[in-house]
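User: Can you model how glutamine sits in this protein?
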Amino acid sequence: MPTETTLFELTATRAAELLQRGEISAVELTRALLERIDAFDSKIHAYLNVDAERALEHAQRADDELMRARQSGDPHDAPLRGIPMSIKDVISTQDVVTTAGSRILENFVPVYNATVVEKLQRAGAFLLGKTNPDEFAMGSSTENSGYGVTRNPWDLERVPGGSSGGSAAALAAGEAIFALGTDTGGSVRQPASFTNTVGLRPSYGRVSRWGVIAFASSLDQVGPMTRDVRDAALLLGIIAGRDAHDSTTVDTAVPNYLDALGEIDPGQDLPLRGVRVGVPREYFVQGMAPDVESTLRAAIAHLETLGAEISQVSLPHTEYALPTYYILAPAEASANLARYDGVKYGPRANVPGDVWNVMRATRGSGFGPEVKRRIMLGTYALSAGYYDAYYVKAQQVRTLIKRDFDNAFDKVDVLVSAASPVPPFRIGEKSDDPLQMYLADVFTLAQPLAGIPAICLPAGFAGHLPVGMQIMARAFEEEKMLRVAYAYEQTTAWHTRRPTL
Ligand code: GLN
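Assistant: Here's the modeled complex, given as structure tokens:
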């Protein structure tokens, strides 16, 4: 049984075991996390709000239910019973303020839960707190939040990545057991890479976005952020599936992702025998940090020692992913964000004049600079005269990018790359130069454009800074990438390293 001081480092899987056996209580677990938050979150600022009292009430109720279940010998239909969860603040939580990191939604209280939150609650989890995102999930560093920056627990002068930086930082700092993030163009995977945690972006259509504040609807997905691959598989299984409230969810059965992991015996030879791993040559670009590249090469060599067949593949349209994404995502954002007008949600600017004045003033003061930039870029790309040149062209290129992946997956089971060309950068280093910030997303934009899943997991360090490996698979073949990720994780120790705070 873990000592009180290590409770906050448990995985959800391990915590559930100990809770069900009565070896720890949900109240103890919650207290341990609240103490960590008290001790460290003033430095890190992973959370926008934590309702300690409410969380402890839920924990107490969970303990009662766990006790009853133990006494009656009932099998557990609630695999997360008693486990606190940390939710990115772009995901709606009923009766709990949800701001999307934006001043324009300050004090906005949703009247319903996102489907993903509902499903996790049904599985027994309860809310610990809401984590800081870039405003409306637009960014790669969590510096764009309207409520202050989040710091990387591995180096407080550096960013935790973004836009799910609060979720990632909370995990890395021992202030969360598991978290949810959203990924439109890398926001689950890149923060995982920057914090030595695991982030999984599901296939488009695998997980409901009902109740998730929309950024770019043809790209947005919700994904688990966890300490290890098993937890990612467990949580994906819980949040996945068809939802009548989100017509883009697909009605294919949710596989048992835990079964897909298989049994990895580290002593067993070649757990990845026969698995074909492709290394896309376009993902080793100029400007990539040498120690990120060498870490990746070492990780690939390790996969080979596990029996994987490594081959080089080409995704020839990769270089167009960045411009394509940065036309389509802002175009969709400009439409999605039209609803924040000071009439329907959130605070309203108190100015004289007609409704147009009120809207102008509300949007002018409520949105931060990056969100305004995206709205303008998107509006431009959609305007008469430019629509064909930008938006339609980008949609055509999107098809070519998807086709690249289709062709590659005819030859290999999974693809591997880095999730970021650079290790976590310094706070302020890129925030004055949007183009530099966009360029940092170069490895995480093509997968959402193609609708395929990808996972990022700890793969080494560049000095004292974490480096993640990204593993991609064909749409709805999450099992394949999970299996490779799990075999890698179980035969390496990177994921067990923790920052000293
Ligand atoms: N960094 C990318 C952007 O700023 C992706 C963000 C995301 O996935 N939400 O758009």
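A couple of observations from the model: The two ends are 24 Å apart (CA to CA). Residues 137-140, 163, 182-187, 215, 329, 441 surround glutamine (CB under 6 Å).
User: Helpful, thanks.
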